[in-house]
Each structure stands twice: as structure tokens, then as C-alpha cells.
Amino acid sequence: MRIPLTLAAGLLALVAISAASGHSVPVRFNPAPGQVLDAPPDRVDGWFTQEMRRSGEETSIVVHPAMEDAMLGDPVSGETVIDDSDRRHMYAELTGDLMPGQYVVSWSALSDEDDHPDSGCFRFFVGQDAADAAVQSETRLDAAEECATLGGDGMDGAMPSESGPSVSISVPEVIEGRDVTVGLGAEGVEIRLPTNEGQDPKFGHYHLYIDIPPNVTHRHDGDGGESTNPNDVMTTADSHTFKDLAPGNHVVTAVLFYDDHTPFSPAVVAGASFTVPGDGGGDGLDTGAAIGLAIGIGAAGLIVGGILGFALRRRAS
């Protein structure tokens, strides 16, 4: 069965994180990261949280077709334009006869308010066949390999690294009933009960967020790090069961926290989406077959939207 790719989990987190940042980070793109289009777009637009400086390559959108072996074709975008009426908006017209396939957007933005540069990459798809191929190969939406071939152009020096801590989350291939157990794992860090002080990156604990934006920037609310929000769970176990979930689509994210109940910095996050069977309104994810989203942030992966990196995994219906 062919399925549309959707990024509800990632975009939800992107909006929440962008609002908390003091720099000019993206609010949204059009096409959006991971979007599947029937026909090539005329241009790529980006909207940001702060006004951008007109500074050539330091504020730009460049679009490349993605080739095999993480190679990129020649740019298919023209000069980047910053909107005169709103300098938080920039765009680049696309040129030539674009074919179906995968396209990588490399963006950079220099804030005119605090002189801080931000940058990142993401991919979108023209044609469902290109999107299906990306799902089957577990292609990263942050285009980490392709962006590395740009030699740092538009990437603010960010490069993939396996040396930092990472977190993983998994959900059952087939959901039965309304209780769902998610699996948790971490590498490069020892999971333990928090000591209530210190930020040693060798130790941490999980916070799970179901259907709400994850906390990746602030000290956790509540006494001793405990949350009063039932959609926010602290745990050191390797799994957690969410009980009596409503039918429809759900998004769960796991965030690593230090002993002092603040999130790791850079943030270390993973996420997945799943569908509870039955009649339900859902939250915008495809009810026929949900897409699991692994979000590798910080040292574990390149950055999309100033904070997010994605990998695609096709879920069973």
C-alpha cells in the first residue's frame, strides 16, 4: 500500500523549539520537510523567527537534486530573495525542468537582531515513488550524508558524529487494544535515577511525552522533576506502557535529562508515531499506516530547523 509521508511529530516539536530559541530559526518551510508533491514546486520558501540580514551565502536557500550514494546534483535554485515586506521570509525560485525524485534543501539564516547564524538541511519528494524508496532505505530527512558533501556550505560546521549520547524509541509493528508499550534505549549514557544535581553527560534519565511537544530547553516543572501532566512521564525503565489510549493517531517522544532535571544540551531526542485501532479523529497522521519518526538531535545527528534531525521508517498498518 502506498502511503503519504507526514511529519506531524517533527513539525510539532519544531514549532515548540523555535519559539523557545533566541535565534532566527525556522517556523516552517514550503515545501515542508518530508512533503510528497505530485509535481515540482515553483520555489522553496522559509519563514523564520527573526529578521534576516541580506548577506549573500550567510542567508540563502539552495536546492539540489539528491542522487545515488549521497551525492547531490547541480543546484536547481536561483538567487535567494528576502521579502522586502517581511525580512523573516525568504525564498528561492526553482529553475529548469525538474524530474520526479528527491530534493535536498540547504538553508542558512543570519539573524539581523543578534548576528547569530543558523543553518540546516532537509529533503522533500516529487512523486510517491521517490518517497517510498526513501522510506524503504530509512533515509534521513535531514539529508546528513548529502549535506556533508557540501563541505559545510549552509551547515554552520555541523557534521555527523557517533561520539555523543543517543536515545531510541520503538513501538509495536501492530497495535492491538488500547494499551501500547514503547521500548526505550540509550547509547553513550548510563540511565539511572536522578540525583537532583549535576549535569554529567555520562548519566541521565528519560522523559516521555505523548501527544504534546517535548521539553528540550528548560528545567522540568514540578517538585523534584516530577510532572503533574499525565502526558509527561519520567522513567529509567527500558519500556513504558501508555494505557487506555484513544483510537486514532498518537506521537510519543523521549528526551534525555540530566541528574538536575534539565534536558541534555544539545538536546537528545527520539520519537515515533503509531495508530491505535478503532474509530478516532486522530491528530493529522495517516490512519491507514503511521510513519515512525526517529529524531536524532545534537551530537547524534545533523540539525533540521535549527534543532531537529529525522530518519524515516515505514510502519506496518
Strand content: 25-35%
What is the domain tally? 2
What oligomerization state is this entry in?
Answer: single chain
- CA(first)-CA(last) distance: 9 Å
Structural class, by secondary structure, is mainly beta
Query: How many strand units?
Result: 18
Reported CATH architecture of the largest domain: Sandwich
Could you name the CATH class of the largest domain?
Mainly Beta
Task: Supply Rg.
Answer: 19 Å
Low-confidence stretches: 1-22, 151-162, 281-317
Q: Give the biggest sheet.
A: 5 strands, mixed
Summed over residues and divided by their number, the pLDDT gives a mean of 74
Main features:
18 strands, mainly beta, four-stranded antiparallel beta sheet, five-stranded mixed beta sheet, disordered N terminus, Immunoglobulin-like, 317 residues, 2 domains, disordered C terminus
Would you mind describing this structure in some detail?
By secondary structure, the chain is mainly β. It folds into 2 domains: 8-148, Sandwich (Immunoglobulin-like), CATH 2.60.40; 166-300, Immunoglobulins (Immunoglobulin-like, Sandwich), CATH 2.60.40.10. 9% of the residues lie in helices and 35% in strands. The protein has helices spanning 8-20, 128-136, 144-148, and strands at 26-30, 36-37, 43-48, 60-65, 77-82, 89-94, 101-110, 117-126, 166-170, 180-187, 190-191, 203-210, 232-235, 239-242, 248-257, 269-276, 291-295, 310-314. The strands form 5 sheets. Strands 11, 12, 13, 15 and 16 form a 5-stranded mixed β-sheet that branches. A hairpin with a 6-residue loop joins strand 5 (77-82) and strand 6 (89-94). The radius of gyration is 19 Å and the shape is globular. The relative contact order is 0.19.
